[in-house]
Amino acid sequence: MSYIFDLDLESIQNMMAGWRQPGYRARQLWQALYHDLALFPLEINTLPNSLRQNLASEFGQGQVNGQVTFSRLSPVSIQHSSDRQTQKTLFHLSDNRLIEAVLMSYDRRQTLCISSQSGCAMGCVFCATGQMGFFRNLTKGEIIEQVLFYARELASQEKAVTNVVIMGMGEPFHNYENTLGAIDCLNHPEGLNLGARRFTISTVGLVPMIKRFADEKRQVNLAVSLHAADDELRQSMLPVNKKYPLAELMLACKEYIDKTHRRLTFEWALIDNINDTPEQAIKLAKLLSGLKSPDGNLLVHVNAIPLNPTHKYAGKSTTRQRAADFAAELEKFGIPCTVRVRRGIDIQAGCGQLAAPHVQNYMAENNLDKIPE
Question: To the nearest 10°, the Cα dihedral for 246, 250, 252, 254?
């Protein structure tokens, strides 16, 4: 069954031409999907009934409450943190794969953390998704639908999505085409119209993809999950460092800054007595010291967050004082650092926590002995 959210506007225009529809029908459908957030083809009242019937026949993914739906994502459980500021949704995909996405509410921002893969192949030892292993890439439409799901929910509260971070399950640059294609659709001015700078992609450091991203000179924000400032320590936590060691990664980061003149964010999970030491802070400062714009300004920022617990990693979160000391050490060298407040820890919705405990609960409740094939 064809999936409408995998199509860009040009593909929809070609489809409408093949169906001998007027050219403006493509834009009507596009606006219905991305501006009006339509979920049911038969309810798109801007289109004639015959066309709605064609869309239901061609793109229907099943039924919800007796209505044919465009959606491949079925929310099977929704959890709210105790402070009600974080919501996590477990989605069942059409092939029985599972993914999670998170909504974080702030005073003026509604930030989504969405997934690009079911599972992850990178194997970062402190990450629950990495502990699961890799199952498959999400299609462009499955990435898009996570955003649209929350956009509908927020619209019912007279709110809107303000930011999207692709930091959920998976390595976005391992699914480059679909991730960037999804952003292009969500960025389209005649649809959801989320500005490019409202998106942030997080990568563990896939050097060829960083270089490709630099060549494209996009306005989308880039974050690199670093977590250690020497190869030995980083490789013990992030296996990808064996293929792309720090020297090679830093050259790619410098190339990105030289070509885009945009600031790079480096993510750092603070682990007690492992990477939260003054020595690691000094090494990190030296590692980042060359990432400057042509006029000599340092174009880096470090996002440090105390480690979130996962069931297969024994490391402990840093203390508040050690986190503050780490940031202060960086700032002595002119490296800006923000120590982030952890969000949604009580529902395993924090950075690095997505999927494992929640999926295990889902499997137990449904008498499954493994993640569905």
Answer: 180
State the helix-helix crossing angle for 207-216 and 246-260, rounded to 10 degrees: 0
What's the pLDDT at 303? 95
Q: Distance (Å, rounded) from C-alpha 356 to C-alpha 370?
A: 12
**Class of 4-68 per CATH?**
mainly alpha
Helix axes 278-288, 320-332, angle to 10 degrees: 40
Segment 93-115 shows an average pLDDT of 92
Q: Does the pLDDT of residue 358 top 80, yes or no?
A: no
pLDDT attached to residue 188: 96
As a CATH number, domain 74-365 is 3.20.20.70
Cα→Cα distances 33→23, 36, 157, 192, 344, Å: 17, 6, 19, 9, 30
| Contact of 70 with 4, CB cutoff 8 Å | yes
Angle at CA of residue 93, ends 89 and 97, nearest 5°: 95
Mean per-residue pLDDT, 208-232: 97
DSSP H or E stretch at residue 366: none
CB atoms closer than 10 angstroms to residue 42: 16
| DSSP letters spanning 26-37 | HHHHHHHHHTS-
Q: Which of 189, 177, 191 is nearest to 147 (CA)?
A: 191
Q: Are 329 and 292 in contact (CB under 8 A)?
A: no
pTM, two decimal places: 0.93
Q: How do residues 123-181 score in pLDDT, each as one tens digit?
A: 998 888 888 889 999 999 999 999 999 999 999 999 999 999 999 999 999 999 999 99
Q: Which of 27, 19, 82 is nearest to 51 (CA)?
A: 19
Tokens 């007595």 -> residue: 273
> What is the structure's pLDDT at 260?
95
Hey, what are 218's tokens?
A: 């996009």
List, by residue number, the catalytic residues. 100, 351
If you average pLDDT over every residue of the chain, what do you get? 91
Tokens linked to 44: 């798109």
Instruction: Please state whether beta strands 264-270 and 300-306 pair in parallel, antiparallel, or not at all (unpaired).
Output: parallel
| Run of H or E including 105 | strand 98-105
Looking at residue 373, what is its pLDDT? Answer: 42
Q: Any idea where the domains of the chain sit in the sequence?
A: 4-68, 74-365
Best CA proximity match to 59, nearest among 16, 116, 115: 16
